[in-house]
Amino acid sequence: MMYSVDCQKNFITIEEFKGKYQNREKFLAYCKECPRYNNTWSCPPLAFDVNEYLDKYTYVYVVCAKITLTDQVIREADTPDKVKDMGWKILCDVKANLEENLRGMERLVPESISLSSGGCNNCSICTRKDGIPCRLPDKMRYSMDAFGFDLTAITKDLFDIDIQWCKDSLPKYFTLIHGLLTKSKVKDELWNF
Known about the structure:
The two termini are 18 Å apart. This protein has one domain (3-190). The protein has a four-stranded antiparallel sheet, with helices on both faces. The protein is an alpha+beta fold. The chain is built from six helices and four strands.
């Protein structure tokens, strides 16, 4: 096993969530520096009013996946290319699983929609660059970042976890933040992460 995953959830009203964690001007400036900006359907600029989209919901259930890497994996990633490739593979694997679970939650919770972390990874090349609609609109979910949310503050406040970043080596753990927007509270027994 290369890693272990511990998923936690917390919920907050969308109004409080926006008030505490949304700073579109600040965080969309970071998005503009990313190669996915205006090139991936899940990323900004979004083709709709962000607050109008969010305000249809009452709650956001935030799901935090803490991905703890084994010491062996960290040692084996001994070059910048290995750090990048191994980190990306681990994150993509966990993210795909989280997204599938959250789409399952959408089927169980009426009038809900999930949010992902980072940009969409469903296609190797997004059709947005060519002005063509998304190939997989049933699977694509908007990135929480695209709404201007401060993922570092969310992770710290709601889960008491500090985000670690790759530098010259893999970190001890990665953190992915996803969400489920709902109009009503969700029963605890529905969560299977």
